[in-house]
Amino acid sequence: MNGRAGSRLDPARLLTLCGAIALAVMLFWTMFDIGGRLAFNRPIHGTLDLVEVTLVLVAFLALPECFRRDELIKVDLFDTMVSPRTLGRMTLIGEIATLAFLGLLIATLWQPLADAYRFGDQKPDLPVPIWTLLLTIELALVVSMLVVLRRIGSQIRAALQPPGAETQAPTLHRHEEATP
């Protein structure tokens, strides 16, 4: 991917942008609430609900981009103890387990989403329907699943290439910076 904005829609990047907007809203709303408390002894009604809503948005909307960049928390316990081939297999197994877990989350979220929509649940202080939050989480999980599927596909393609036939430079982890 080059540094320019592409002509095609990138759902992971779009969700990350929405998560960043939610973070900015949370930041500024909280600052105004604290300022209102200090200056006028009047807090803004619904601050707790807004922080809860935006916190959910920040966490889940950033998830697909974290999967794509491989920036999740990892414990590199076996990386130096096994061969690169075995490590690749272990990574692939981890990606498949991640895919299964995301699928499980997606499947188990359908019923609460349907119930929240059916009963019209909303936050107590702000008129934010709960089903919209659950739908947003569902969307972020589906995009995350697609990102993980793409990662699995590229790992399988790389594993099927004959040795020495690499077409791309190997992916570096963040802590393994390339030296000139």
Please tell me about this protein's structure.
It is a single chain. By secondary structure, the chain is mainly alpha-helical. It is elongated. Helix 1 (11-40) crosses helix 3 and helix 3 packs parallel to helix 5 (130-160). It contains five helices and no strands. The protein starts with 10 loop residues before the first helix and ends in a 20-residue tail after the last helix. 66% of the residues lie in helices and 0% in strands.
- Strand tally is 0
Gyration radius (Cα, Å) is: 21 Å
**Biggest sheet descriptor:** none
Helix content: 55-70%
Whole-Å distance between the termini? 22 Å
Shape assignment: elongated
Percent strand equals under 5%
Class by SSE composition: mainly alpha
InterPro entries: DctQ, TRAP_DctQ
Main location: membrane
Subunit structure: The complex comprises the extracytoplasmic solute receptor protein and the two transmembrane proteins.
Function: Part of the tripartite ATP-independent periplasmic (TRAP) transport system.
